[in-house]
Design a protein that fits this description.
The chain contains two helices and four strands; from the N terminus they run E-H-E-E-H-E. By secondary structure, it is of the alpha+beta class. It has one domain: Alpha-Beta Plaits (2-Layer Sandwich). Strand 2 and strand 3 form a beta hairpin. The radius of gyration is 11 Å and the shape is globular.
């Protein structure tokens, strides 16, 4: 399964993790989701597009950057 790793620097508490994971769960193609407030990282697995994933952060207080995308991740 393709993986996408995001760096979400502003995600530093449990509330932020719940907020960000709530948005990402609804992205088409997301099958697995792991978030860590300590490191500010989110790892997604599935067939989601990078554009769709990053779009959920538009207009929010959180900014995300792609830290690593597996070779099979749809863009």
């Amino acid at each position: 399964m393709p993986e996408l790793r995001l760096s979400v620097g502003s995600m530093q508490c449990r509330h932020c993790v719940r907020e960000v994971t709530g948005w990402l769960r609804d992205v088409v193609g997301v099958e697995t989701l792991t978030a860590d407030a300590t490191t500010g990282t989110v790892v997604l697995g599935g067939t989601m597009s990078v554009a769709d994933v990053l779009a959920v952060f538009a207009g929010s207080d959180h900014t995300a950057q792609v830290a690593d995308a597996g070779p099979a991740t749809v863009t």
